[in-house]
Amino acid sequence: MTRAGTSGARRRLTVVTSSPPGASETDLGRKRRARKIGRVLAETHPDAHCELDHSNALELAVATILSAQCTDKKVNEVTPKLFARYPTAAAYAGADRGEMEELIRPTGFYRNKTDSLLKLGQALLDRYDGKVPGRLADLVTLPGIGRKTANVILGNAFDVPGITVDTHFQRLVHRWRLTTETDPVKIEHAIGALYDKRDWTMLSHRIIFHGRRVCHARKPACGACTLAKLCPSYGTGPTEPAAAAKLLKGPRARDLAVAAGVDPELVPAQAVAAEVP
Questions:
Q1: Which residues bind [4Fe-4S] cluster (predicted)?
Q2: For position 134, which CATH number holds?
Q3: Fewer Cβ neighbours under 10 Å: the N or C end of the chain?
């Protein structure tokens, strides 16, 4: 073999191929990538917010209880009459069970939810003078309120930073390989360690928005996603822009396409009108 041939072979052997994000990642590398994901999400979803309509902590607590196994849209259709009928904890504590069940029936599991709301009203009267407490340790002792619901209430009613680990949040942080934890509390702590505490509440909203509109459970819109370069799971869904654009959902679906560098005309009208899950 000639020297030139040997040199060429060596050059071919030393070609470095790029690794997918998250491959052999250090803790520092993961934190930096997580922060980049957070910044891109802020640009992608400037409209992110709590999608449960409410005007105070009690209304938000009630709405989050009703949101179990139900879309936020359906909850928001039910709550105006409910909030008008039961404006205080005392009103919930003294409510007629049958009347309340009929009001919240469209949200599903209405018997169990009614039971939680009646008990919540009574517990607030007995222990907190009818007011929703602003501490996690207190909130999680109330009927119908677990840690996820408590963090929603704290972040949106009391401006206390919290991470909301719902199904969308779990799915996305696993796809991004930011944690391998499966227990919601451990996920909360693992993700919390990657971001500044002041960002936790809005980060939760943005991740949930992204999960509902772009990174769907069965078929994510990989080819129309602003996080494509940062995601180790890129390719789980279609990567061809025309196919991916059809999977975007919500009134800003075409804006999401533009943000990802995809022709917004590829987004069909039904995608724009589609109800987010």
A1: 215, 222, 225, 231
A2: 1.10.340.30
A3: N
> Is this structure's pTM higher than 0.85?
yes
Sign of the dihedral through C-alpha 137, 139, 144, 150 = negative
Residue partners of 48: CB distance under 8 A and separation at least 6:
41, 202, 205, 206, 208, 209
| pLDDT interval class at 24 (50, 70, 90) | confident
89: number of CA atoms within 13 Å, CB side? 21
Asked if 235 and 253 count as a contact pair (C-beta separation under 8 A), the reply is no
50 assigned ligand-binding residue = no
Q: Catalytic residues, which ones?
A: 148, 166
Task: State which residues form the domain around 116.
Answer: 57-157
- Residue among 251, 272, 210, 276 at smallest CA distance from 74: 276
**Is 164 contained in some domain?**
no
Q: Which residue matches tokens 């196919």?
A: 243
pLDDT tens digits, 109-151: 999 999 999 999 999 999 999 999 999 999 999 999 999 999 9
Q: Tell me which of 104, 137, 157 is where a domain ends.
A: 157
The per-residue pLDDT for range 171-228, each reduced to its tens digit, is 999 999 999 999 999 999 999 999 999 999 999 999 999 999 999 999 999 999 999 9
Q: Is 70 annotated as a binding residue?
A: no
